[in-house]
Amino acid sequence: MSGLAAEVSRQTCTLIVHQDMPVDQYAHVLTSPGPPAAFGELLADTSLAATRGDWYTDSTELPRLLGRPSRTQATAVAEALAAGPATTFDPRG
After folding, report:
1. In angstroms, how far is the first alpha carbon of the chain from the final one?
2. pTM of the full predicted structure?
3. Which of 4, 14, 33, 39 is the most exposed place for a label (fewest CB within 10 A)?
4. pLDDT tens digits, residue range 2-60?
5. SS3 label, residue 33
6. Using CA atoms, how far apart are residues 16 and 91, in angstroms rounded to an integer?
């Protein structure tokens, strides 16, 4: 996530800093807008697993599964920024 924050910062000329938080605190933040606690815990645990590298694979199957070439992080960020906001929902209230 630090790399994503750095790329978004670079492309928007705005400093964005990724800050890790304990899994239980992250789960609470995810569920504070209303989703069930179990859902927040699942998402938080999934994020922790990704951070540990549990989801790493050297497979080259992603482009086949997507039906298109995969994109670099820089390209994905540029496309997302060009598309504009997807929603006006602000989970912070």
Report:
1. 23
2. 0.66
3. 14
4. 899 999 999 999 999 998 889 889 898 888 888 888 998 999 999 899 889 998 889 98
5. coil
6. 18
